[in-house]
Amino acid sequence: MRNGSNQRLEEITIGTLIVGVDIAKKIHWARFVDYRGVELCKAISFPNDRQGFERIVARIEEVCKQNQMESVVIGMEPTGHYWKTLANYLIERGYRVVGVNPYHTKKSKELDDNSPTKNDKKDAITIARLIKDGRYFEPYLPQEIYGELRC
Asked: Average pLDDT in the 39-55 region?
C-alpha cells in the first residue's frame, strides 16, 4: 500500500462513526457503520434541503452519543452538483466530508451480494464500507472568498 493509504486507514479508529450517504436529486440515503463495517442503526432517508440536512446532523449526533463515538467521517459519491450543498453544510458544522469514486461503489457492490442491481439504500452501505477500508479521497470545496469567486 502507498503511504497515503496507510494514513487513511489509521484515521479510522474504534471511536470513529462512518456515515455513507448515497446522493440523489431529491432524497438521499444514509447508513451508519463502525470501524469494522458493522451497521449501528437503521438506514434513514432525508430530503435535499435544510430540514433534511438538520435531520441527518441530529441523527449523526444521536448515533455518536449512543455508541460513544468521538469522531465522524461522512462519505458520499460526488454525483453531479447535488452533493455540494450537503457537503458544504456538513463542513460548516465541523464534520469531515470525504468522497468515494462512483466506479468503486459499483464494483464493490457486486462483491457484496453478487448482484449489480442499483439501490440507493444498498449504495449507502457500500460507500460506508469503502470509507472503512480507506478507499476515499478528500474533495476540494472552495470556502470563503474562493467559493464566492467560483459562484
From this structure: 94
Pairing status of strand 27-33 against strand 16-22: antiparallel
**The C-alpha cell that represents 108 in the structure block:** 464493490
Q: Are 18 and 33 in contact (CB under 8 A)?
A: yes
| Predicted model pTM | 0.85
28 forms beta bridges with 46
Would you say 89 and 53 are in contact if contact means Cβ atoms under 8 Å apart?
yes
28 in Cβ contact with 40 (< 8 Å)? no
Query: pLDDT tens across 55-66, in order?
Result: 999 999 999 999
Gap between the terminal Cα atoms of the chain = 38
What is the crossing angle of helices 50-67 and 82-92, to 10°? Answer: 50
Q: What is the dihedral of CA 85, 11, 62, 25, to 10 degrees?
A: 30
Per DSSP, 143 falls in state -
For the chain, list the strands marked E by DSSP. Answer: 16-22, 27-33, 44-47, 71-76, 96-99
Q: The domain 3-139: what is its CATH number?
A: 3.30.420.40
